[in-house]
């Protein structure tokens, strides 16, 4: 098969024509993983020498993105095995539509390294069609049809029809060497793709709360993932900066600081300022009337009002920035106000296409399959959150030319986004088969009492207070371990920040984002279990092995080129395979945007490393003198490879490991 660079379509020739009825299943050497295949359609090709034509979108996703494999990139072993088994299944049972394809890594060595469990499910499918074949028989036939390949040493059929796969040691060892030589490299993207991630997005004049903290942490990690994979990433802060609250804020500002145009008013506490203005708004009819006038003037962009609005936004912006600095977040502010002019055009477009209904003075849009309409114009003529999101999605599709758009907010907004996406499709802005638009929702943050996260006095927790408490607690922990006695003051502060912010991020990321999660400093700072504290310690320990044995950088670098990574010991073998599962994990989290899988993997890698280190000497020392007597270079390389993958994992999670802890 050849992957053409054609813009329009990917040309595929199928020499053996084992095309299944619904098209696009068999792809010669490149068999595409099954879940994706359901979305495919293919048609007969008019080009000579080429039998089938596949949509370029599909070609992009499979061959150009995921299948492209240069020698210096890490191989996704699981995916490669899926290709091989997919081919075997299609040759063995060419008539079977969408045969179930499952290949998983094996935890227990006695069952081989990977396992293909398709035979059982295939037997079910065939039974439903009236063909009675035992899974074992199917497994045998699959095994007989496994094509020649580079990585399978042998297979065996176990139990009712599991196919256990044993990998070639030499092959795995070569992959590890190549990882050490080339570094941890993602598969290369032939066509650069663009991702917009809308995250963090707090509201001006209001406190940034724990929900925004989650969005910030999760969104940043998604950005880092796509950046690592080579996408162009646009990180957008869709701040709430255009609501009606600005009317009363500006009216109050005019009264309290009449010379605000020449002297910057000292509003340190915007919350208090907000409360004062709200009180007046509720009690004073005259003030209320003026506040509404202010909104109109602001939205028609009168300079003095824009100036007042900017002053207020700046106060919030500075507060938000403090949080971003702690957490090392880069983000571009593009609030609701950015879309003001586009909103007007969007309303017109919906009206012209006859998609708008009037409802008690409001303009609403019903999207197919959605019971709740979008309100695009309020009865007072103002625009809404819905209007700004419609304008924003249009801008991201047509002006930003995004291939993927992700919104990271709490799951409470799921319906809002569902309706916005449906309306955008209704008006024809995008086809979900071509552009991936997704709401990545998350659960609420709970306190240790399992109730909504609050301070003791019942107020919402200020994020800066929370981060500061994290810093204090992490310093206590480091002192408890006596780290203040061995680290320089500078290194101690570095460790303090790495632990505090690393733990807060990791605690969030290591839980399935869909679920609610309980915020507990005690748990996140515990250095046992699946926590950042544990992983950071494990990482510094691995990094220090070479240093403590006095092995120079240069020596290690030469070893990488000259020493084979032998995997004779059972624990070396286990660790080697674990290291190489990294691309498989990245693939999964790119598909489902569930980052906890990466955390689980890093934890597994750290514990697998510990198992290895406990039973395999890397450095032998003289018991009496403590002098190094022997260095096992090949094991040192396994340490290096583990550290390299862990470092990349931390990078994606936005966690900053320190050399000394
Ligand atoms: N400002 C909103 C909030 O605090 C979140 C905005 C999310 N992004 C969007 N495009 N709607 O709930």
Q: What does this molecule look like?
A:
This protein is of the alpha/beta class. It has five domains: 9-69, no CATH class; 77-167, Arginyl tRNA synthetase N-terminal domain (Gyrase A, domain 2); 194-239 and 336-439, HUPs (Rossmann fold); 245-333, no CATH class; 463-653, Isoleucyl-tRNA Synthetase, Domain 1 (Orthogonal Bundle). It contains 24 helices and 19 strands. A five-stranded parallel β-sheet has the order 10-9-8-14-15, sandwiched between helices. A four-stranded antiparallel β-sheet has the order 4-5-7-6. It has a three-stranded antiparallel β-sheet with strand order 1-3-2. A hairpin with an 8-residue loop joins strand 12 (362-365) and strand 13. The longest helix is centred in the middle third of the chain and has 25 residues, at 303-327. The model is unreliable at 1-68 (pLDDT under 50). Arginine (ARG) binds next to helix 13 and strand 14.
Could you write a compact summary of the structure shown?
This is Arginine--tRNA ligase, cytoplasmic. The chain has 661 residues and is of the alpha/beta class.
CATH architecture of the largest domain: Orthogonal Bundle
What is the mean predicted local confidence, pLDDT?
Answer: 88
Low-confidence stretches: 1-68
The CATH first-level class of the largest domain comes to Mainly Alpha
Number of domains: 5
Shape: globular
Q: Could you tell me the radius of gyration in angstroms?
A: 29 Å
Question: Would you tell me the structural class of the helices and strands?
Answer: alpha/beta
The distinct ligands, each listed once, are: arginine
What distance separates the N and C termini? Answer: 52 Å
Largest sheet: 5 strands, parallel
Return the CATH topology of the largest domain.
Isoleucyl-tRNA Synthetase, Domain 1
Helix content: 40-55%
Tally of DSSP helical segments: 24
Tell me the strand percentage band: 5-15%
CATH homologous superfamily descriptor of the largest domain: Isoleucyl-tRNA Synthetase, Domain 1
Strand order of the largest sheet: 10-9-8-14-15
Strand element count: 19
EC number: 6.1.1.19
Catalytic activity: tRNA(Arg) + L-arginine + ATP = L-arginyl-tRNA(Arg) + AMP + diphosphate
Protein name: Arginine--tRNA ligase, cytoplasmic
Enzyme class: ligase
